[in-house]
Amino acid sequence: MAVALALIGLLLTAMTASASLGQTYIAPADVWHTLRTGTGPYDLVVGELRVPRIALGALLGAALGLAGALIQTVTRNPLASPDVIGVGHGAAAATVLALSTGVVSSPGALPAVSVVGGLLAAALVYVLAWRRGMQASRFVLTGVGIGVALSAVVQLYLTDSELEAAEQVKLWLTGSLNGRGWEQAAPLTVVLLLCLPALVWASRAARPLGLDPDTAAALGVRVDRARLGLTVLGVVLAATATGAAGPIGFVALTSPQLARRLTRTPQLPLLCSALTGAVVLVAADLAARTLLPPLEIPVGALTSLVGGPYLLWLLGRRGAVR
Fold first, then answer.
1. Residue 321, pLDDT score
2. Do 274 and 221 form a contact (C-beta atoms < 8 A)?
3. Considering the chain, what is the average pLDDT of its residues?
4. Separation between Cα atoms, residue 174 and residue 202, nearest integer Å
5. Is 259 helix (H, G, I), strand (E, B) or coil?
6. What is the full DSSP assignment across 34-101?
7. Which of left, alpha, beta for 132 (phi over 0: left; psi -120 to 50: alpha)?
8. What whole-number distance in Å separates Cα of residue 172 and Cα of residue 242?
């Protein structure tokens, strides 16, 4: 609880800093005044440009943090996150095909397309990795292979598409919050609210899954059913987040492990994983906007740049992949 409260305070601080800093500096007092009254000289910058983007970043980070915690709980592996095992690639491939072919014209429908693509990719990984049980290393390696294949499909489609469509798809693939706001945040908020009862169940079902499968089964837990439910929930959250802003790598990978180290618990805490993901993504988006002004770095590129060395560190640890 203490860690959760500290993370909430850190998140509010990061959101306030993100609303204040930029090409136009706005004092925090003016930010809060604008939010309370909805009027003033900074209403356009704060109310229409920065605050919707910050809210979307916090929601995306929370969804990715939860998704990573659920997938890592199922596999008992710190390397098994949605962007590593192919779920993000499946959501990206489905969204790219929908954007390029014009099947989906409304941005609000993209999360649904991403969920379908993520679920199909996850189902394919689950079927191919199943061999009289689910072994973590096989699950991760199968997901990596499926992700590479889906990435190749996307690249192949881009080489044969028109220039305007290809540029639109490439912009989406960078994973950026630029130009996004309430229109993308609303569907993600609905999905998170609908998933709340399932997340309450997941917080209880995840506890015995932290044990080895034989011990969990001896305690009366239906291991395969619990794993399937947690996997589906994690895939829905990750795929919806991908549809809202494009693939943003490594947030789902790092947030659960950071949350576990902060709480010093043997199992991954879902609430703190969500809060850690929100803090990481809001802070990363702030850095992406302000590091090289007036150039804006896509937040997905920045998180991948930081998350890559973290992944190499995990790979170098003994027993990281079991």
1. 45
2. no
3. 82
4. 31
5. helix
6. HHHHS-STTIIIIIIIIHHHHHHHHHHHHHHHHHHHHHHHHHT-TT--TTTTTHHHHHHHHHHHHHHH
7. left
8. 10
Calculate the CA dihedral of residues 48, 8, 63, 192 and round it to 10 degrees: -80
Residue identified by tokens 């890559």 is 308
Q: Rounded to whole angstroms, how far apart are CA atoms 319 and 237? A: 28
Single-letter amino acid code for the residue at 3: V
* Burial annotation 38-62 (CB, 10 A radius, 16+ → b, else e): eebebeebbbebbbbbbbbbbbbbb
CA distances from 257 to 145, 176, 240, 254, 263 (A): 24, 24, 22, 6, 10
CA atoms of 64 and 275, how far apart (whole Å): 10
Q: Please, are residues 94 and 275 in contact by the beta-carbon 8 Å criterion?
A: no
Two structure tokens written together for 222:
């239906």
Write a three-state SS string for 119-157: HHHHHHHHHHHCCCCCCHHHHHHHHHHHHHHHHHHHHHH
Residue indicated by tokens 């809202």: 244
Nearest to 257, CA basis, from 33, 78, 124, 103: 78
Nearest CA to 256 out of 94, 97, 66 is that of 66
Centre a 10 Å sphere on the Cβ of residue 211 and count the other Cβ atoms it contains: 17
Q: How far apart are CA 66 and CA 55, in angstroms?
A: 17
In 3D space, the residue among 304, 310, 319 whose CA is nearest the CA of residue 88 turns out to be: 304
pLDDT digits (tens, 9 = 90+) for 108-150: 566 678 778 888 888 888 888 877 666 667 777 888 888 888 8
What is d(CA 125, CA 141) in angstroms, rounded to the nearest whole number? Answer: 9
Q: Cβ contacts of residue 319 below 8 Å, gap of 6+?
A: none
Which pTM does this prediction carry?
Answer: 0.86
